[in-house]
Amino acid sequence: MKKTALSLSVLAALALGTASAQTTIKIASISPLSGGQSNLGTQIRNGVQLAVNEYAAQFKKAGFNLQLVPYDDQADPATGTAAARKIAADNQILAVVGTLNSGVAIPASAALAPSNLVMVSPANTANQVTDRGLANMNRIVARDDSQGPAGANFITDTLKAKKVYVLNDKTAYGEGLAGEVEKALKAKGVTISGNEGTEEKSDFSSIVAKIKLTKPDAIYFGGIYNQIGVFIKQLRGAGIDTPVVGGDGLDSSELPVIIGKAGANNVYYTTVAAPLEALPAAKTFAANFQKTFNTPAQGFGAFGYDAAKVTLQGILDAARANGGKAPSRKQVLDTIRKGTYKGLLSGEVSFNSVGDRKAATLYVIKLTDGKAALETSLAVKPPKN
């Protein structure tokens, strides 16, 4: 009896030792999981989770337990920065995927930088995100100075607009994107009939009145779907059918819901997150996403997934280079910036010296009767290589 009990205790200890030998490695996500932009933020989080689920076996084989720690930034810079500080304090977190909003990414990445905590963004487009030259900031999407001219070209070449009213939501993202569009339009000789920023969320009557008076051929609004959807609904309600063009902030299935089917026409947006039908490899991803989360995948879910795969592969590569031991944050940071990542939904990813993707694609989407369809696509490169 004693011998058996001793043997069992030894076996239990050995089993415990084997379990404890698995080092825990975490990655974090930062995106809006509550509030008016939670549709896109949850897509990002879920895309990251799906990648973590798929990579868990590889990490276990390498001796690591892999975990995702999601944080809700509420699309607010202060909340996102506070989350970044909490993340930096957890030494098991080796990388971050996020954010949705450039205005959150800029201070959050700065808060992570002193800890050498790398960030891979699936969504941020403002030039300032990477122009600061932070070693920890990377993105897998095109910049505003690529997206802006693409939007301007569409307005002039396809919509044939000669006079455009430009709006923005007074955020780093909206102002930056609208500014790039306006600059490109002016270079093409287009008249800017109005240019203003607004934080209004519910009553756009004064802006609608100005548009009615100036009669532009097109309207450009740099901002997010929850605000712009309300604007378009009121614009259409006032009998104005002028084409409305925006950026990837409109890329949400909630946009036509907010506008209403009757008004969700003649609306276009450029997006850095491809519609799934434009990604040949996305069929399996979409099926797994639906099965796992019981909701359809959208573009930012796919790009959250790709950003996470870049992050996770970077950690594994850094671990291998570190003799199979858990790498430091600095090793992960350096490895991700220098790496080339294949087998992604959005194609091969590699970064230039400031963390911009060396080659990206922009997509133009059109809403017709509330349904989104791909209008065209355009390959772009950042200004710095």
Automatic annotation (TrEMBL):
Residues 1-21 form the signal peptide. Gene3D superfamilies: 3.40.50.2300. Belongs to the leucine-binding protein family. Keywords: Signal. Residues 24-370 form the Leucine-binding protein domain. This is Branched-chain amino acid ABC transporter, amino acid-binding protein. It comes from Deinococcus marmoris.
